[in-house]
Design a protein that fits this description.
mainly alpha, two-stranded antiparallel sheet, 72% helix
Length: 689
Amino acid sequence: MHKNLKFVVWVMVLGLALVAVSTIALNRGESISAMWFIAAAACIYAIAYRFYAAWIAASVLAVDATRATPAERLENGSDFIPTNKWVVFGHHFAAIAGPGPLIGPTLAAQFGYLPGTLWILIGAVLGGAVQDMVTLFFSTRRNARSLGQMARDEIGPIGGAAALIGTFLIMIILIAVLGLVVVNAMKHSPWATSTVAATIPIAMFVGFYMRNLRPGRVLEASLLGVVLLLLAVVGGGWIDHQPILRNWFDHEGLSLAWVIIAYGFAAAVMPVWLLLAPRDYLSTFVKLGTVMLLAIAIIILQPHVHMPALTQFTDGSGPIFGGKLFPFVFITIACGAISGFHALIASGTTPKLLANEGDIRMIGYGAMLLESFVAIMAMIAATVLEPGVFFAINSPAGVVGQEAVDAVAKINSWGFAVTVEQMNQLASDMGESSLFARTGGAPSLAVGMASIFGHAFGKSLLAIWYHFAIMFEAIFILTTLDAGTRVGRFMLQDMLGNVWPKMGQTSWMPSVVLTSGLVVAGWGYFLYIGVIDPNGGVNILWPLFGIANQMLAAIALCVATGILVKSAKAKYAWITGLPLIWLLTVTTTAAWQKIFSDDLRVGFFAAANDLSSKLAAGLLPLDKAAVAPQLIFNQQLDAYLTVFFIVLLWVVVLDTLYVTYRYFSSQPLMPLTEVPYQPTRLDDNWVRD
């Protein structure tokens, strides 16, 4: 009877999923309730986690809860530390959940709500969550080796070297983008800056509390940390209204950049239990609390999505960014569906904290589903806005015009109604002077979130909700930056360890300081260039972010596929092979277009050559002519880096194919580097509950 009831329940869940997805996909010409988005996501994620992820964990990976993990066997009190599963989940989710699931869906709404929503739902359960889980498993079985080092050990020296170099350089670009987004979110925002700053000493106190004052009292420490975080949020609002105190936290972008660079170095050097793990764990409460509150507000309010399913901009003429629906919706969404950055975390800090293999499905697959749900929330928040308002906020002044009247006329000509009075009133409600041309995705997402919160819990607090959303976005992203820096340190130590084994010892302090300094210097340079760029820096780094991130995911799937084949599990290689083929198609197409397209809004070289011609002909105004050489260099740098990354990717792919060929032709292969089985001796109650 019990089994029959469970069967009926899951059939009902499947039926609701089909109805919800069909409603989202087939609706045309009318607004649609946001509840269908939540229903589709919840049902699809539940089915995928219960059945697909469980099958992969049990049948493909053969997860063994009795096996000692690297955190137990190599425990050193600094990097390798067996940690409570909920703390590890919090750290992992906070580390992987950066700007992608927030900003990507917001920008991709330019094409309409349908393409991005379908990619988030399908890409996450079949691609992103699978990549995260299998990478975490393979790294755990190999003493928490980094992705690049696993490629070198399992695929071969050529593909491994390409993967090591590619993953490290892509990591530098990704962290620089994260830093730039954080700087732009906190710039001249005392509330956000003071609140984010307060999370650092709070995290250190909670880390000390759990390790030294009250070991193992996770619930107690969590409650204390949450209370302190809420006080920090309230205190940030109070500071924002104090003329003297707000000046202490009101800074230009360059000042904040130097602070973030210093913080990144500290996060990479200090013991993981003191700052990184507790800060990410506590930040997860802010992230999940806000997302859950947003979901509750949507359930209460039941708003309608006003953006059409498809817009006329699927042809590549969109005002927010150039490029057609394929491949750029998949590049733009990034982390909400699949992200190579996750593979670096899953083979970096997380396997060094994991106390039991039995938690791999929850942490690897489950955290990715949760991030995908965040992306769905972001899509809803962006598309409940009137389309005219959405495009007024996100369209650059260079496209719609410098003056409000010109911008409104241009947007209305696209068929999306908006007025100057409407935008002025909205800006006043949000406590801003203007919301025209607030590009980048973050401001429109904050407006959407504030509108939902305000209608559900009180419109008189719209300004507070708006600034809270901006602060939430900054915290969301900064936790990814600190974990990424530490993972970059591990990657560089792995590479240098091939030359001098002593440098590969992750806890040897000279190696820690040197590699941390080199990593921070790398992304700090690009962050510095981005902050001082006359166009705001996004034009230097953001076009590379989506392409590089998806290339990194393809490298991770190559490594996973190669290991499955070598492990005599070639019949299961499709679980990583199919998403790999899709990503290769998407990233190669996008890279080709960004390099060779004649469209000035798409091609890097096309934009650089056009600007060079105008500069040589004296057609640029004096102010633009002064910065033109820097802008030309930026476009060319983007182009050459894209070429370099795509070459490295295909070197890894070809080496993986060669390994597969040798396996099926019964030729010798490099031995698997999985460590021998050792039984766990951990106290299960202390670590896991």
